[in-house]
Amino acid sequence: MPTTIDRPSRLTRPPAARFAGAVRSEWTKLRTLPSTAWTVLVAAALGVGFGALLSYAGGRKYTTLAPADQASFDPTATSLSGHVMAQQAIAVLGILVITSEYATGMISTSLTAVPRRARLLGAKAMVLAVVALAVSEVIGFGMFFTGQAVLAAQGVPHAGLGEPHVLRAVIGAGLYLAVVGLLGVAVGTLVRATAGAVATMVAVTLLVPIFATALPESWSRVVGRFWPTMAGQQIMAAGHGAHALGPWAGFGLLCAAVGVVLGAALVVFGTRDA
Questions:
Q1: What is the reported pLDDT for 8?
Q2: Overall average pLDDT of the 78-96 stretch
Q3: Considering the entire predicted model, what is its pTM?
Q4: H/E/C letters for each residue in the chain?
Q5: Rg (CA), the chain
Q6: Which of 117, 190, 229, 252 would bridge with 270, disulfide CB 3.0–4.6 Å?
Q7: Does residue 11 carry a pLDDT above 50?
Q8: How many CB atoms are located within 10 Å of the residue 257 CB?
Q9: Residue 169 contacts residue 237 (beta carbons within 8 Å)
Q10: pLDDT per residue over 200-251, tens digit each?
Q11: Do 218 and 128 form a contact (C-beta atoms < 8 A)?
Q12: What is the mean pLDDT of residues 71-87?
């Protein structure tokens, strides 16, 4: 009696292989986008440049403080303060991962190649996370060493990587920026337009913290403690504020908030037309 031999078909490849292919495709797209290299360079320049400038300003201010206030000076956080500007560029990188395809119409091609939208968005998020983390760690160490050199040149207290909590804070700067990049992917997926997504990220990461300082003190403390990006920034401090969450608790709150937004983006991405 004749028998048939089942041969593996491309249509029945394991899901892991198909996801790996999607990841390779997204990596190719990201590294060949002209905007990627420019965005990375801008992020590095903004982070290190503003970190040095704010470290200089912090050192000047330190000399005018009362002894009690000088005791609370955190040279590590001061040198990492350039993240305020670097996060905007990293967020743009995350946004462009998805909105650039909507702008060019390539999203239809991507969905044809990877019909499962959860897989496509997951591949984009994974590639962005890895690239953003690598870039952000370089920026974090660049901000730290440049800022500490500026502080040392002014003769004010400065820190070394071997001091308590300093290495965690520097590595934490890279972790924070990478998570902000993932938030950019989520917001870009929800908004689908680069300008609108950038405006949203500026409001979330920059405007809310600025306006929080104008609120009554009791409200300002609550916002500063629990607003996700402000809470997440605690991972970059070697010291601990009296009214702030701990470094890992604050970072965990940020990650949870970004996870919720990514979940919402996945639901919206999977239900609407391309």
A1: 46
A2: 95
A3: 0.89
A4: CCCCCCCCCHHHCCHHHHHHHHHHHHHHHHHHCHHHHHHHHHHHHHHHHHHHHHHHHHHHHHCCCCHHHHCCCCHHHHHHHHHHHHHHHHHHHHHHHHHHHHHHCHHHHHHHHCCCHHHHHHHHHHHHHHHHHHHHHHHHHHHHHHHHHHHHHCCCCCCCCCCCCHHHHHHHHHHHHHHHHHHHHHHHHHHCCHHHHHHHHHHHHHHHHHHHCCCCHHHHHHHHHHCHHHHHHHHHCCCCCCCCCCHHHHHHHHHHHHHHHHHHHHHHHHHCCC
A5: 22
A6: 117
A7: no
A8: 19
A9: yes
A10: 999 999 999 889 888 888 888 888 889 999 999 999 988 776 677 889 999 9
A11: no
A12: 92
Written as one letter, the residue type at 89 is: A
Alpha-carbon distances, residue 72 vs 3, 37, 77, 167 (angstroms): 80, 38, 11, 19
- Indicate the residue type of 106: M
Token representation of residue 50: 């503003």
pLDDT-derived band at 274, boundaries 50, 70, 90: low
Interior/surface letters 141-162, b for 16+ CB within 10 angstroms, e for the rest: bbbbebbbebbeeeebbbbeee
Residue appearing with tokens 């198909």: 18
Question: Which two three-digit tokens encode residue 220?
Answer: 């300002």
